[in-house]
């Protein structure tokens, strides 16, 4: 029997551990990654000639980051590694890739999608102005380029990443004006039993809050965002919010980092025609998979935060598990006890993640209260008012229908950044449950594809 | 299960542009209409096509229908109470140097078209490039139609449906038809959920699904479902007014593009993909995207500097002779068809609606449609 052709998409914690399991079984997988260097987002590597230490870059996660990078470097002779390569479509058991204008079609018997996550965003009035970044974007600027997004920065949103990135900025010497969290402290207490599933991670979180306190950063919980102040030519000049006590405040700043936890990058699973189901706890549609990462499509596996947000530690376990499942499904020997242990690890992380969802909830209710002039879809510059008017005028209540009529989600991000919020706006305005709005169908190309593609010979 | 009967003068099956525009024009004549759509209005061929509001290149015998349609496009905003992004910004059709014989065909076509009221201007060499500097060196000659243009297909059929509804048409989405038969004087059209819709006149405008209904009346047709191959770029400053297309006998070379007012450039053509009427889905094959982009680079090399941000397709019904099935049934009185527009129905759509309403309402039309009779497939 010929060696199975296994393609791993993504070289973050899930992809690296999946590839490692395959290599250990004597298989030479193809690892395709958009990044210039392996590591993914949370363990993103700095450019080759940068010399910051692991401790500086990754703090408490330095050991894990270094271990992952070392593992990947050891794998490179045993894999076909395609960095800076986008998988832009999947059809008929082939992935279609683009690297610049170079096109390549790669057949697969098994496909392990470890596509990672991006920020989950809720619009706020003024967020389209220059100087507003996502939390992830703010982190990339720091990790990759060693620069801050502004000279006086406010971090707003909710979730663990809010505190992590703010602390990383403080440590790097940036001027952090405030951290504004929409979740209430009481939610964290309620979530504590679940968060105790990962005491070490929980402690890391507590330590971050303490570090911010020590640095004298203003931290507010239970806030209501009002507006990012500024102008079209000058960009962000401040942020206005209501405190938990109901007091309206404005803090001057020239940059805002915004984010409400993360959302999985599921477009490739969609193009591979995997089934999706609504996840009520986080109010979003996720690809269906079994405990080992098998999707509804034979031979397609989903691991890491690209399938469901369970964090980087879980991604390493679910990536390895998906690799082992792909081997087992091809009749190759695997250590069943190890698979059981990995499933139990992932279950622990899932319990912790459900605690995080409770502690730092997605602020769905904000969508109903967005002023009509708030931009929802930044790519197409469609406001909440225009979206609501479309729903009222045309009766469109389904996500793709509302997109067809209003252009929300029709731009270059294909709704990755506005899709969840737009669904909440539609649901609130049509007075239907958000799951009934459905989800935006993924369309190729996953990211913009040059018309010059294929011009350059392989 | 409910067997409640819903009666009207006309039942239309299929909520694309043909069905919705017929419903509107029937209501203008005071005829009561129920329109039944399996899914949502205008979501397949009518909503996913390129958006060419183009007369030139159509068979000369179809130009009276196309001219009727253009009158409706021009007044669409008032008629529909909604902006369907119709731009009468011209259409240019070009041929390549390696097929010089096509230049002569274009000139012959222009001569004939002039008699039906379609004025075309032939352009070659420097004159062509001065007017349209984006063409590549392979382009030999062009035929320019100033009075053609383009519109936004996603908006058109739903706008017709809303306008028809405002005039009293009953529009029923998510209504899958499982049976249609004539009992006595009336057609009985039965939905999956048991509802029965009854009328003395039945019009089938079900696109790629048309045969499933015509066959129930003993008139099967050899229709094939295909999917258009569409892409769109990111927005760039608005600079290209006309819709642009290539005249060529090769399907792969047949590409076209248009820039919308917002700035995005919509690309269409090259090889069509398969589509799945049973699943109500169609997919763009990646190899078709690549062949389209290659042909677009040949037609307008500067577009190679842009990116496409999305591709899409839909479900279109193609007839073997590329002409629609349009007109009365040859087998059953009171039964009418307008489907199988073979990827060329968008521009004529509103004209088809007005003509079918005229045919149903008055029993006759001056528009020549005899060549589209379903009888041409009898015994096939």
Defining key terms:
heterodimer, A: 458 residues, alpha/beta, FAD/NAD(P)-binding domain, Arc Repressor Mutant, subunit A, five-stranded parallel beta sheet, globular, B: 380 residues, alpha+beta, D-Amino Acid Oxidase, Chain A, domain 2, 2 domains, eight-stranded mixed beta sheet, six-stranded mixed beta sheet, 24 strands
Distance between the termini of chain B: 39 Å
CATH superfamily of the largest domain in chain A: FAD/NAD(P)-binding domain
Spatial strand order of the main sheet of chain A: 3-2-1-7-20
Shape, per Cα inertia axes of chain A: globular
- Summed over residues and divided by their number, the pLDDT of chain B gives a mean of 95
State the domain count of chain A.
3
Structural category of chain A: alpha/beta
The CATH homologous superfamily of the largest domain in chain B is called FAD/NAD(P)-binding domain
CATH class of the largest domain in chain B: Alpha Beta
Oligomer: heterodimer
Strand tally of chain B, please?
24
Which word captures the global form of chain B?
Answer: globular
Count of helical regions of chain B: 10
Q: How much helix is in the residues of chain A? A: 25-40%
Strand content of chain A: 15-25%
Strand coverage percent of chain B: 25-35%
């Amino acid at each position: 029997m010929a060696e199975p052709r296994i393609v791993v998409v993504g070289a973050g914690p899930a992809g690296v551990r999946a590839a490692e399991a395959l290599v250990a079984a004597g298989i030479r997988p193809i690892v395709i990654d958009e990044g210039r260097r392996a590591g993914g987002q949370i363990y993103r590597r700095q450019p080759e000639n940068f010399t910051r230490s692991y401790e500086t870059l990754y703090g408490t996660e330095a050991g894990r980051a270094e271990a992952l990078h070392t593992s990947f470097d050891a794998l490179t002779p045993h894999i076909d590694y395609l960095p800076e390569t986008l998988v832009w479509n999947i059809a008929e058991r082939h992935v279609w890739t683009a690297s610049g204008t170079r096109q390549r079609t790669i057949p697969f018997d098994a496909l392990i999608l470890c596509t990672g996550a991006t920020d989950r965003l809720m619009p706020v009035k003024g967020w389209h102005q220059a100087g507003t970044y996502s939390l992830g974007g703010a982190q990339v600027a720091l990790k990759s380029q060693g620069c801050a997004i502004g000279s006086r920065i406010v971090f707003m949103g909710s979730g663990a990443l809010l505190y992590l990135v703010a602390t990383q900025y403080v440590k790097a010497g940036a001027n952090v004006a405030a951290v504004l969290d929409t979740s209430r402290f009481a939610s964290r207490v309620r979530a504590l039993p679940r968060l105790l599933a990962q005491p070490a991670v929980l402690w890391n979180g507590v330590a971050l809050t303490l570090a911010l306190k020590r640095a004298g950063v203003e931290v507010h919980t239970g806030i209501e965002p009002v507006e990012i102040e500024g102008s079209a030519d000058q960009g962000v000049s401040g942020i206005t919010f209501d405190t938990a006590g109901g007091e309206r405040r404005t803090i001057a700043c020239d940059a805002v980092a915004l984010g409400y936890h993360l959302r999985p990058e599921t477009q490739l699973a969609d193009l591979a025609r995997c089934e999706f189901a609504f996840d009520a706890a986080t109010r979003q549609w996720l690809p269906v998979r079994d405990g080992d990462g098998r999707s509804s499509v034979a031979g397609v596996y989903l691991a890491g935060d690209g399938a469901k947000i369970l964090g980087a530690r879980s991604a390493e376990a679910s990536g390895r598990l998906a690799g082992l499942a792909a081997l087992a499904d091809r009749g190759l020997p695997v250590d069943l006890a190890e698979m059981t242990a990995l499933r139990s690890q992932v279950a622990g992380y899932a319990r912790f993640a459900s605690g995080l969802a409770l502690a730092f909830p997605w602020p769905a209710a904000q969508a109903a209260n967005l002023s009509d002039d708030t931009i929802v879809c930044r790519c197409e510059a469609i406001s909440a008012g225009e979206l609501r008017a479309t729903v009222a005028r045309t009766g469109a209540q389904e996500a793709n229908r509302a997109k067809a009529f209003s252009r929300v989600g029709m731009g270059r991000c294909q709704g990755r950044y506005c899709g969840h919020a737009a669904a909440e706006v539609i649901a609130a305005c049509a007075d239907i449950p958000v799951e009934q709005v459905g989800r935006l169908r993924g369309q190729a190309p996953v990211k913009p594809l040059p018309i010059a593609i294929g011009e350059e010979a392989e | 299960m409910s067997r409640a009967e819903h009666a009207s003068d006309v039942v239309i099956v299929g909520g694309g542009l043909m069905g919705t525009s017929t419903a509107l024009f029937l209501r203008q004549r005071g005829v009561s209409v129920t329109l039944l759509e399996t899914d949502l209005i205008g979501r397949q061929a009518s909503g996913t096509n390129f958006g060419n509001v183009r007369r030139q290149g159509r068979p000369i015998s179809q130009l009276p229908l196309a001219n009727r349609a253009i009158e409706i496009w021009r007044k669409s905003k008032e008629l529909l109470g909604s902006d369907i992004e119709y731009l009468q910004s011209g259409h240019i059709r070009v041929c390549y140097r390696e097929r010089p014989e096509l230049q002569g065909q274009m000139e012959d076509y222009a001569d004939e078209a002039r008699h039906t009221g379609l004025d075309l201007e032939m352009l070659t060499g420097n004159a062509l490039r001065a007017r349209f500097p984006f063409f590549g060196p392979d382009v030999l000659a062009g035929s320019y139609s100033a009075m053609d243009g383009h519109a936004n297909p996603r908006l058109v059929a739903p706008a017709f449906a809303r306008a028809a509804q405002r005039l009293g048409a009953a529009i029923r989405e998510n209504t899958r038809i499982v049976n249609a038969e004539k009992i006595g004087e009336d057609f009985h059209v039965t939905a999956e959920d048991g509802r029965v819709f009854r009328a003395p006149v039945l019009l089938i405008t079900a696109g790629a699904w048309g045969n499933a209904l015509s066959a129930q009346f003993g008139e099967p047709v050899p229709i094939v479902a295909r999917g258009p191959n569409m892409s769109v770029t990111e927005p760039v400053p608005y600079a290209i007014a006309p819709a642009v297309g290539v005249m060529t006998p090769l399907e792969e070379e047949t590409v076209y593009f248009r820039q919308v007012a917002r700035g995005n450039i919509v690309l269409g053509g090259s090889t069509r993909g398969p589509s799945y009427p049973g699943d109500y889905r169609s997919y763009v094959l990646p190899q078709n995207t690549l062949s389209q982009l290659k042909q677009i680079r040949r037609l307008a090399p500067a577009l190679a500097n842009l990116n496409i941000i999305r591709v899409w397709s839909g479900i279109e019904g193609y007839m073997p002779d590329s002409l629609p099935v349009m007109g009365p049934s040859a087998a059953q009185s009171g039964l009418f068809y307008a489907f199988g527009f073979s990827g060329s129905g968008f521009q004529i759509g509103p004209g088809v609606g007005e003509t079918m309403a005229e045919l149903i309402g008055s029993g006759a039309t001056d528009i020549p449609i005899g060549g589209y009779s379903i009888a041409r497939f009898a015994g096939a």
